[in-house]
Amino acid sequence: NAGVTQTPKFQVLKTGQSMTLQCAQDMNHEYMSWYRQDPGMGLRLIHYSVGAGITDQGEVPNGYNVSRSTTEDFPLRLLSAAPSQTSVYFCASRGPGQTLYNEQFFGPGTRLTVL
Amino acid sequence: RKEVEQDPGPFNVPEGATVAFNCTYSNSASQSFFWYRQDCRKEPKLLMSVYSSGNEDGRFTAQLNRASQYISLLIRDSKLSDSATYLCVVRGYSGGYQKVTFGTGTKLQVIP
Q1: CB of A27 within 8 Å of any CB in chain B?
Q2: Inter-chain contact B46–A104, Cβ cutoff 8 Å?
Q3: Degrees (nearest 5) of the Cα angle A42, A45, A49?
Q4: Which has the least CB within 10 A, A25, A98, B26, B90?
């Protein structure tokens, strides 16, 4: 199993550009989520999905869109990049949502810089 | 007040030392608790879950105190390879979905 994969690993954008961060998992997990990690702050939830076709907003959703057309894929779209979106982005997945102690697996992250 | 609070450190300890980290959480309805380890410029990985009765995994011991709303991680006989940031993670239900809250992490540096 590859686990959770993310592409690209690094990206530099100019303000106003749009792009999609890719995330895929091969563990047949229902629950997938996107986090951003900034210095001095914990991981913050951007969007999450509890299954194909179902997405919802997390703590910091503004400026981002997601979709979940398959169980495996959960792309994150930046609509119009801003310097405040410079961050490290992690995609994560885990098994059935009602289980309290199921492990959450993270992808290797995407380091995004917006100039 | 942050939902999950940790001492950011860094904790600089010599090899072989015992070190303890604490984490406090504000939501008394929180249901499950974890310690994750994050190496520099890497993704977080599960170190251990924290159960009500406390649990041990080799040199690592985790404790949960629901009354005082804190969890702890004890590392005995520290190794150089233990150098990392340790994230406290708390899960509970909020508005119908399972909310996961991360602490900002405690940095550990084990010195030769």
Answers
A1: no
A2: yes
A3: 150
A4: A98
A56: contact with B, CB 8 A cutoff: yes
Distance from CA of A101 to the nearest CA of B (A): 6
A50 touches chain B (CB under 8 A): yes
B103-106: which pairs have CB atoms within 8 A and are 24 or more residues apart? B103/A42, B103/B2, B103/B4, B103/B5, B103/B6, B103/B23, B104/A40, B104/A41, B104/A42, B104/B2, B104/B6, B104/B8, B105/A42, B105/B6, B105/B8, B105/B38, B106/B6, B106/B7, B106/B8, B106/B9, B106/B11, B106/B21
- C-beta atoms of B98 and A42 within 8 A: no
Average pLDDT, chain A: 93
Are the beta carbons of B69 and B33 closer than 8 angstroms?
A: no
What percent of chain A stands above pLDDT 90?
84
Distance CA A54, CA A90 (A): 19
Confidence band of A95 (pLDDT split at 50, 70, 90)? confident
- All residues of chain B having their beta carbon less than 8 Å from the beta carbon of residue A106 are 43-45
Q: Which token pair is B85?
A: 């940031």
Q: Which two tokens stand for residue B45?
A: 């990985």
Q: What is the mean pLDDT of residues A67-95?
A: 96
B69 touches chain A (CB under 8 A): no
